[in-house]
Design a protein that fits this description.
Rossmann fold, 5-stranded parallel β-sheet, 20% strand, 142 residues, 5 strands, alpha/beta
């Protein structure tokens, strides 16, 4: 039986960029992503570092801290990758203030409100389910 014919077997996440300036959280996210099968996790502490990493190779997933040391609009990177090509990476926003994300941007991916369990984020990315803050809010209000 091939992998493509087995509906319950998901391929690994591939290359994931974690754009997070909190080193402890970034390492926890990296560990959680590796535990669910990410092929490569690249930690970037700034938008500038993320841009360089994206020039090196395409990302399959992006975990974006919304408020970074070098920029207060981490979601701008999500807008950029959305315009770069036909295959947009899966996006997860990581923030202490989800209401600060423009609604049209928040719809581009999962939204996780800090503090959250990095393992929950990794499982949501691996499964493709919408488990972020706004998805849970939508589920709660029906």
């Amino acid at each position: 039986m091939s992998l493509t014919s087995a509906p319950d077997i998901k391929p690994p996440l591939g290359r994931v960029l974690v754009v997070e300036d909190d080193a402890v959280l970034a390492l926890a996210i990296e560990d959680a992503l590796q535990n669910v099968g990410a092929a490569e996790v690249v930690i970037c502490a700034s938008i500038a570092a993320a841009m360089l990493a994206l020039e090196e190779a395409e990302a399959d997933c992006l975990v974006l801290d919304v408020h970074l040391t070098d920029r207060n609009d981490g979601w701008a990177l999500a807008e950029l990758v959305d315009q770069l090509g036909p295959r947009r990476p899966v996006i997860a926003f990581s923030t202490g203030s989800p209401e600060a994300i423009p609604p049209a941007i928040a719809e581009m991916g999962l939204v996780f409100e800090k503090p959250y369990d990095p393992a929950e984020l990794a499982r949501a990315l691996a499964s493709g389910r919408r488990r972020g803050f706004f998805a849970r809010l939508r589920d709660a209000i029906g």
